[in-house]
Amino acid sequence: FQGKEIFHKRVRFAQFYFLDKFILLCCGAEFHLISSHLDTAKDDLKRYKQRSVCKLVQKFPMASTMEITSLSAVNDFYSYIVLTAGSNRALEVFDLNAGCSTAVIPEVHTRSVHQICQNKGSPFSTQQPEAYNLFMTTAAGDGIKLWDLRTLR
């Protein structure tokens, strides 16, 4: 898998998104939404020819931060929400259906967030639909906080 995109900084995080239809990459203070097509056809005569393609769909900059420290997006079901946390200790909510940032929560922790975890559900049990609005953040030395997307508290 090779792309023609040249990143200006080191790629810190990558994950599949939207039921493996896209790839999210964090680079500096922005994340990139990339569409990909992996060619799985086997042809012994043309096996060295690269036919897999990736293409940048859009870049999403995080407001007033130097670097994204954590990113979370659900890949198990269709969800348009991407959560990012930056070195400025803020958390930003992106709606990729609208193609923009929808909310910024300043000073989420006393230090930069290093992990965001969204509720992805379980194949073994059912949950109330409201439970999918919950997510957690954690920062070194600051514990864990449980958040609700509806109230941003």
From TrEMBL:
TM regions (residue ranges): none
Superkingdom, taxonomy of origin: Eukaryota
Name of the protein: WD repeat-containing protein 27
InterPro entries: WD40/YVTN_repeat-like_dom_sf, WD40_repeat_dom_sf, WDR27
